[in-house]
Specification:
Elements: H1 3-15, H2 19-29, H3 31-54, E1 57-65, H4 71-77, H5 79-84, E2 92-100, H6 110-124, E3 130-134, H7 135-140, H8 150-153, H9 156-162, E4 166-171, E5 174-181, E6 198-202, H10 209-219
Parallel strand pairs: 1-2, 1-3
Antiparallel strand pairs: 3-6, 4-5, 5-6
């Protein structure tokens, strides 16, 4: 019997049933297959959405440590930045991790140590292209040697324009500028008024210099 004939016969069988029989028949023979198909369909939609998300270009990925940023500041560093770059949220994204607070005392609780280790692992793996830190965090992470040399990251004109803001530190391979003081800048206005001095650093792991230079033009025009 052809598929057409089978379908015709099945429809005729269902048509001759009353409402109760029809529901019982459909529930027994068709509902399980329908539910399985629905689950598969939802999984495919989720997979396609993830694929689309993963294909979006990452314009920047930032991490804020020991500083409180306003909701407007989060938008400024994420959606607004994507828009200024002339991109849409469908094909580009700017990530921001904004709730990292660490207590760098000598005798930290175990959970605090674990949290710091996890954050350090993320930074060292290159999950963040830039970081905004308070003075304590800037000094603390110096030993991990993942700050990028701004002499190599910024353009010559950017280095000239920002030379008074550059902060030098002794790293394993010498002393060089690793941070930019954000005092009295537009981005600093989005942080809590009682926040300490803030500094911008770039992470020297899988660094995309051109994107970092683009971010500088946005944050410090």
């Amino acid at each position: 019997m052809s598929l057409k004939d089978k379908l015709k016969t099945e429809l005729e069988k269902i048509r001759n049933m009353n409402a109760r029989q029809r529901w019982s028949y459909l529930k027994t023979y068709y509902l399980p297959g329908f539910l399985i198909g629905l689950v598969v369909f939802v999984m495919l939609l989720h997979f396609c959405f993830d694929m689309k998300q993963n294909h979006r270009e990452v314009l920047a990925s930032g991490c804020i440590v020991n500083a409180s940023i306003t909701p407007e500041g989060v938008v400024f560093l994420t959606d607004d930045y994507v828009d200024v770059c002339g991109r849409s949220l469908r094909d580009a994204v700017s990530y921001l991790s904004a709730d990292n607070t660490l207590n760098f005392m000598e005798e930290n609780p175990l959970d605090q140590d674990s949290y710091e280790m996890a954050l350090t692992a993320q930074i060292s793996a290159g999950e963040y292209s830039y970081m905004i830190l308070d003075e304590t965090a800037l000094s603390h992470f110096e030993k991990d040697d993942f700050y990028a040399d701004l002499e190599k990251t910024l353009t010559q004109s950017q280095r000239e324009r920002l030379k008074e803001r550059m902060v030098f530190q002794k790293m394993q391979d010498g002393e060089y500028p690793v941070a930019i003081n954000l005092a009295d800048t537009r981005i600093a206005e989005f942080f809590a008024s009682d926040a300490k001095k803030l500094y911008l650093v770039f992470v020297d792991v899988h660094q995309d210099v051109s994107k970092n230079q683009q971010l500088i033009e946005y944050l410090l025009p």
